[in-house]
Amino acid sequence: MAAFDPWDPAFVADPYPAYAELRARGRVIRHEPTGQWLVPHHADVSALLRDRRLGRAYLHRFSHEDFGRTPPPPEHEPFHTLDGHGLLDLEPPDHTRVRRLVAKAFTPRTVERLVPYVRTLADELVSGLAAAGGGDLLTDVAEPLPVAVIAEMLGVPESDRVLLRPWSAAICGMYEPNPPPEAARRAVSASVEFSDYLRGLIAARREAPGDDLVSALIAAHDEDDRLTEQEMVSTCALLLNAGHEATVNATVNGWWALFRDPGQLAALRADPTLVPAAVEELLRYDTPLQLFARWVLDDIEIDGTVIPRGAELALLFGSANHDPAVFTDPGRLDLARRANPHISFGAGVHYCVGAPLARIELAASMRALLAKAPAMTPVREPERKPGFVIRGLAGLPVSL
Question: Is 2 contained in some domain?
Fold first, then answer.
């Protein structure tokens, strides 16, 4: 039996056999080590993402004690304050209010206006990689592109952008199951530093507003009192984190998958019109966000099993995206796959507001690499990051 063990490096390296075993065992499986109920099937994951009996948070309805949960340690408060007031963890009506404003930055027209900037930057980054004869695809292309784009939208000065990725990586360490004390310490420290930085940025934009999202958030706060300052800080942090984490990891996960499938890579190089379908297939094939948790706010029943209020569901995106009930031969990379209802960007009210921008960034970097680095090959097998929930590589050295 393939074991579901998010702390085992062998499982983290390839969780998909364990997912197959989970799907064979049933629709919901209790996992004692994490205290969660695992949901591995696509139909259930998709439906539960839309089920309002579940929530990303519960404090809008219950206290920790009423919900049967132990409050987090007081020393973790900076992380939970930053995380809990962001769009991802808010629930209606606060979520509705904040998302309505943030969505204005991601309208089709706004995103479309970014296309020339994204393509130009992708070309510049890949040209630098090509001129050097190779390098690390992660640090030379995958990271700087989405970080620069979302920082540009928010109005973060270029000189400060080097700070963002380390803060984000530290904060995201808290999303892993039962994070160790040192990971929690780093996340708390990064939350304090990131929050302080964003408060300073907000203060600067109050003095000199610009044509950026931070200025728009300030205007909404100061004129209509729709946002608290903490909501502004948390929303900016979330957009900076979520605005690049998935894109960075999807880029390196995707190219590593292509390198391991020479036939599909050759097909893509021969026919760049496959790029849009390739982006979708690579998001499905090796999903950058493997698990999305939900709290049970009201008792629910799944396949005859009653899941009580206060329980936590682990919706397994990686498993859902490999469910043979939905995807033909799901373990095969197929860049020409037509029916591809993957759920890598979620669903329901928490569907990723930046999904259209992420697709543009992934396609832009892929096209630039196909055009300017057509013979790109990996130097060696890359090291995978130890985290399970946010799936990525520590680097991807390549030669041209």
Answer: no
- 346, 46 contact by CB (below 8 A): no
Rounded to an integer, what distance in angstroms lies between the CA atom of residue 379 and that of residue 262?
A: 15
Domain encompassing residue 178? 9-399
Domains contained in the chain, number: 1
Cis (ω within 30 of 0) for the bond into 15?
Answer: no
Q: Which of 75, 14, 62, 6 is nearest to 34 (CA)?
A: 6
249 assigned to some structural domain: yes
pTM tops 0.85: yes
Q: How confident is the model at residue 106 (pLDDT cuts 50, 70, 90)?
A: low
CATH number of the domain that residue 172 is part of: 1.10.630.10
Task: Decide if 1 is inside a domain.
Answer: no
- Tell me, yes or no, whether 13 lies in a domain: yes
Q: What is the pLDDT of residues 278-313, one digit of tens each?
A: 999 999 999 999 999 999 999 999 999 999 999 999
Question: pLDDT over 90 for what percent of the chain?
Answer: 77
